[in-house]
């Protein structure tokens, strides 16, 4: 395909915005798709009535991801699903601040719009022509005049020439849903080919890779800093910063706090716990995936031991009390043997009313087990129950 700059006239923008706002209102009133689509006049619109309907539906859904900003933005279904959450996009844009950046697989522009508030000039390249128009509409909606959208193939011959003044090349490639083991091969555009195409422009190249990939698997293909991003205590992203963008081998960042731990932080030996201390700490999955638990403990100076026995989460125990965005801290209330009767007795003694279960069990059994334990409790304390080997640990979250 030929690479072309997407230019939208102000009048075309206003027409499409009016059509989408009307469709949003009709959908909110409960009108079925056919009636909404029929009410949209196709003449002179740069999107088809079906596309306007899709954008309107997505705009309603996008509130969860983008808050009130969504009311001004344009999306298609896939573009919305893969768009970067606002907090992550803001952080990434700060870290990649430069004069000229090229996002060579920009989708609807979830990340691109944030680059535009931190960089002087931003290129957005998108292979899907409709999505490229949507990205351009978003730039106009937010009056970001420093964005240039190119509809084209980042791996073609023309795009590397068009963006040759870029200081940084960024790519968040599309990935097929539901792959069992994430590899580089299935990503589009393929990061290895992006490096081939753009390394003569700059060595400062950054990617978003599937976060399930451990550092060693990334290293097999590409070298650089692997930054695991946690959003609200969930592993959300894995960024790879190459060349001059890297400042360590592996790192983890917690958002929104921006607390960071890296492979440069001195790691300490962590022994296996022989007893449960005054606190249980749950470790952020991003730190676990990054392999930085020992570095985190070294950095924050906690005397902690690792608790074995829970396959789904990494738990530490300690008598020390520390605060870190990478740790959820629980004060231990009681430790009893793991069985319904000892647990219920301990819960009554603790004055508990509700119990959140923090141990592996099939999701279909969660509520029946929880109800069995909560049945007859009269207290007002909300406690958490961990299973550690043959012991049940009753604990309370502390801020
Ligand atoms: C995961 S999405 C990007 C999401 C974007 N970062 C955001 O926050 O909205 C990846 C995009 O890359 C586009 N793409 C795939 N291959 C491409 C190529 N060779 N050149 C340009 N864009 C490509 C896809 O169409 C898709 O829209």
Automatic annotation (TrEMBL):
CDD domains: AdoMet_MTases
Superkingdom of source: Archaea
Stored Gene3D superfamilies: Vaccinia Virus protein VP39
Keyword annotations from UniProtKB, A to Z: Methyltransferase, Transferase
Protein name: RNA cap guanine-N2 methyltransferase
Species the sequence originates in: Archaeoglobus veneficus (strain DSM 11195 / SNP6)
Entry's Gene Ontology molecular function annotations: RNA cap trimethylguanosine synthase activity
């Amino acid at each position: 395909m030929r690479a072309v700059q997407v230019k939208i006239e102000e009048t075309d923008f206003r027409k499409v915005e009016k059509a989408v706002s009307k469709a949003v209102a009709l959908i909110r009133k409960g009108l079925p798709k056919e009636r909404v689509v029929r009410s949209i006049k196709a003449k002179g619109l740069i999107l088809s009535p079906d596309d306007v309907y899709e954008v309107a539906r997505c705009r309603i859904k996008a509130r969860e991801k983008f808050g009130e900003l969504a009311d001004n933005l344009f999306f298609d279904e896939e573009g919305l699903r893969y768009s970067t959450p606002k907090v992550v996009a803001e952080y990434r844009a700060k870290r990649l601040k430069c004069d000229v950046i090229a996002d060579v697989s920009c989708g609807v522009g979830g990340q691109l719009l944030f680059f535009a508030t931190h960089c002087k000039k931003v290129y957005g390249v998108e292979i899907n022509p409709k999505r490229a128009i949507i990205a351009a509409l978003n730039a106009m909606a937010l009056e970001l005049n420093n964005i240039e959208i190119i509809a084209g193939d980042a791996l073609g011959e023309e795009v590397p020439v068009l963006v040759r003044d870029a200081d940084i090349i960024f790519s968040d490639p599309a990935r097929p849903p539901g792959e069992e083991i994430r590899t580089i091969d299935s990503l589009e555009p393929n990061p290895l080919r992006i490096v081939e195409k753009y390394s003569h422009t700059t060595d400062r190249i950054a990617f978003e890779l599937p976060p399930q990939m451990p550092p060693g698997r990334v290293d097999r293909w590409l070298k650089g800093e692997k930054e695991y991003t946690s959003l609200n205590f969930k592993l959300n992203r894995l960024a790879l910063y190459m060349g001059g963008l890297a400042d360590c081998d592996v790192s983890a960042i917690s958002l929104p706090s921006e607390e960071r731990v890296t492979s440069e932080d001195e790691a300490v030996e962590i022994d296996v716990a022989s007893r449960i201390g005054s606190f249980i700490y749950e470790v952020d999955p991003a730190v676990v995936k990054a392999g930085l638990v020992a570095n985190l403990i070294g950095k924050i100076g906690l005397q902690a031991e690792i608790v074995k026995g829970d396959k789904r989460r990494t738990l530490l125990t300690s008598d020390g009390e520390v605060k870190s965005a990478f740790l959820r801290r629980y004060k231990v209330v009681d430790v009893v043997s793991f069985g319904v009767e000892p647990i219920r007795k301990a819960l009554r003694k603790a004055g508990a009313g509700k119990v959140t279960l923090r141990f592996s069990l099939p999701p279909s059994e969660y509520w029946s087990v929880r109800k069995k334990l909560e049945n007859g409790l009269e207290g007002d304390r909300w406690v958490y129950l961990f299973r550690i080997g043959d012991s049940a640990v009753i604990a309370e979250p502390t801020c």
